[in-house]
Amino acid sequence: MNYSLVQFLEDVAAGNYNVISINLNTNGMIVASLQNELNRGPKSRHDNRSLEKLVESRKFYGGNWTRFNILLVSFLQYCRDVDPWSLWQSCDLIFNFYQNLNNCLLNDSYPIDNLVPLFRYHTEYVIPLAKRLDDNYLITGTKRHQLLSFTSSVISRLFNSIKKLENSDSIPAKQTILMYLVNKLNNIYFQIDSPQLCSNIFKNFRPKSMVPFREYPIKEQIEYRYLLGRYYLLNNMITNSFVQLNSAYRQLTLVLDSVSPDYIPQLRRNLVRILVYLVPTGLMIGKLPRFSLIRSLNPTMADKYSGLARHVRGGSIRGLNSWLQTHESELRKHDLLLVLLEKLPIITYRYLIRFVVQTFATTQDSGRLPYNVVETAMKVSIGPIGKNLTCYNAIHDPKNLENVLVTLINLGLLRGNCFPLLKTCVVKKTHQTEEILPSIQDRILQAFPLNYDDAWLDN
After folding, report:
1. Domain coordinates of the chain in residue numbers?
2. DSSP string covering 96-148, please?
């Protein structure tokens, strides 16, 4: 292909911004042609100053848009110096171009709308490159997550520049990619182990948006709810997490029913991606999933979580701890270990007490749970206490039975009163177990209401 520098400048002047692409997979022929011309000989080789003069001489947009000129110069520098065989040798050129492209979009007084698709396209190109380089940070001598962090700072500047325009007749192009930017930023924050940075993004999304949530692309809606659910889970807001993850799952299943068969494998993988967090979150609020459905998507996951559900609903602390220890590395990877360690034992104890109520108090019509009966049940549930204390067994001891009962009562998961001197917990004398042990889901929702700020997601 014979593509000249003059032709490039003419294409740009005509508004054909497709030629301003650093992706060698799609624009390699143009880049190669420009590289040959820019490096034709020692005397005719274009240095940085000559490139600046060349671009300025064309008087793009009257010569007033300095940042656009800088963008074109950085693109031509990339064409001149890029090494197609070394990503590391070319990364400075790539990120310099990406940053200059972003800078063009920060000022709304210039005609930036045609650059917005170009920025989105290059964001999809740059993020995987940054991740690939960061994965080799020990070899390249950079800091961990250095390039992804830099990429997030670039995207963040564009996000912060977006303003909600009142009484506007049309929606600016930057507004159309608002949720796209939100999802990209939050995804990067999770990847660089800085999920708390998501707080500012979630908080400022609605005030910036000029359209209702439901008018964004369904794919972006699902991704947003998934990331919001994960954020809530990390912050121990379990009910909020479940609602968002469950909404993302339900929306994706509706999409699955209406797409071409070619997209089904990818959508099924995304369903599994959501279920990794949705299933344990549901168990923490007492909701049991349909494992037959999960098994149709991922038999391994179904078997794994059905085992966890069996231990929790069977009131087996020993089984719960064994399950957590077996899957510790995977749970750490998904930031699930700590929250499950904190939330699931009390739910497991609640099911244990339910068994005691059904087999002892209800059958004897006594309305009493003697401490020694509860202690015996806890001994069976906890199993032998080893000499080596770990995060799994350190707090579990049958002698703590009163603490367990009081905690369940304070959380509203058990209706009763403890009498330490009598070594008895008194409950209502009834055969209706739910009058003694209310629904876990209902009690948790009452104690931890949903975030009102999320109501706009359903409007």
Report:
1. 341-458
2. HHHHHHHHHTS-TTS--GGGHHHHHHHHHHHHHHHHHHHTTHHHHTPPTTHHH
What does the DSSP assignment read for 244-262?
Answer: HHHHHHHHHHHHHTTS-GG
Residue 49 has pLDDT above 70, yes or no: yes
- The Cα–Cα gap between 1 and 10 comes to 17
Whether the CB-CB separation of 112 and 68 falls below 8 Å is answered with: no
pLDDT digits (tens, 9 = 90+) for 135-161: 998 888 889 999 999 999 999 999 999
* Helix and strand numbers, DSSP H then E, in the chain: 24, 3
Q: How far apart, in Å, are the Cα atoms of 283 and each of 288, 291, 335?
A: 6, 12, 16
CB 285 within 8 A of CB 441: yes
Chain centroid, CA 280 distance in Å = 16
Distance CA 310, CA 52 (A): 69
Q: Where are the alpha helices (DSSP H) in 257-336?
A: 264-284, 291-297, 299-313, 317-326, 328-333
Q: Could you tell me the two tokens for 377?
A: 């049940």
Cα separation, 458 vs 251, whole angstroms: 12
Q: Which residues of 280-291 are buried (b: 16+ CB within 10 A; e: fewer)?
A: bbbbbbbeebeb
Distances (CA, A) of 398 to 237, 351, 455: 29, 16, 43
Provide the mean pLDDT of the chain.
92
Question: How confident is the model at residue 1, as a pLDDT?
Answer: 65
- Report d(CA 348, CA 170) in Å as an integer: 55
Q: What is the largest CA-CA distance in the chain?
A: 102
